Amino acid sequence: MKKLIFRKISKDLLIFFSFSIVLLGLIVWTLQAINYFDLVAEDGHGLKLYFLFSILNFPKIIHRILPFVFFISLFYTLISYETKNELNIFWINGINKVQFLNKIIFLSIILMLFQILNGSFFSPMSQLKARNLLKNSEIDFFTSLIKEGKFINVVQGLTIFINKKNKDGSYSEIYLDDSTKINNTKMIYAKRGIIVDNKKQKLFKLLNGKVINNENSKINVFQFDQINFNLKDFTSNSTTAPKIQELNTLDLISCFSKNSQVQRKLFRCEKEFLDDIRRELLKRLYKPIFIPIIAIVTCFVIISSRNKINYIKIRNLIFMLAVLVIIFSETFLRYSVSSKLSFIFYLLVPWLIIISIYSLFLKTAKHV
User: Fold this and answer.
1) Is 46 helix (H, G, I), strand (E, B) or coil?
2) What is the pLDDT of residues 222-258, one digit of tens each?
3) Mean pLDDT of all residues in the chain?
4) CA atoms within a 13 Å half-sphere pointing along the CA-CB vector of 64
5) Which string of b and e fits 263-280 if b means at least 16 CB within 10 Å?
6) Which pLDDT belongs to residue 41?
7) Are 263 and 273 in contact (CB under 8 A)?
8) Most CB within 10 Å of its CB: which of 124, 201, 205, 345?
9) What whole-number distance in Å separates Cα of residue 142 and Cα of residue 61?
């Protein structure tokens, strides 16, 4: 009977949690996807890359909101059970409040392990894939980005200005500043230009113009009838270098080895990055310990009955305390590596909190 009762509340909690995290995740993802639309509007990438890039950032969103969603789900489930007098079923069947708390802690530990797995593997892997999409992509919407009287800077080292767009799709009075090569810059003026954009080629044909070439401080000027700019040779201004939160956890850990040989193309275990790496590892591997803390704090709701006069005040106080735990876990992480003392403090405090509030729960439950 006890197993059936625990199975029911576990099922209700997980169903509400799953629905909430997907719903809230989609809301956050939608808002974030709007910001990512700059990849199309300003950086010249295609819609396919935009959607793939947005979707691959979804595990990061789940990792970010999971503690808060778990708290809301647990708090709502316990309040709902109390309102419907369903918690009395536990007490009538010989389940005490400490046993109830232990079951909830067990569920929170499972979620904690999932959070560690997601934060240390799935989330960085998907973010790195998204970054590689940008790195290996071409500028798909170059034609749509070009507008009259506007400087176009979607390509690294290349600035384009077009005075007029003609009805036949060609352009008039074109100015280009090409500084993509070291010690070699070009200023190009063309009376007319045509963009050829298809599967075989991506060219900007410039007609009847002049080139001012500055190579190693030597200036050469010549005129031309036609010059073809191969746009596939240029990359977008989008950031393609991976960030620390997008890197493999084992590589980050190896940075603290004396014989570390982690030297990726875009990442090095340099001294100035060690604090950021240590903070990232704490976020992935240690911060999830606050999930069981949130569970214990929230379970104080079952200590008091809704028939008591101060029930509403106690419920609101518990809600505020759980929110403060979430805020503390987020904010103090930023300062956890500022010194050795703060680092040790961040490691010890969660365990001190767990011991203190669990002991308080045991003591309080005996007198209820």
Assistant:
1) coil
2) 788 888 877 665 555 445 456 788 788 888 888 876 5
3) 80
4) 13
5) eeeebebeeeeeeebbbb
6) 45
7) no
8) 124
9) 30
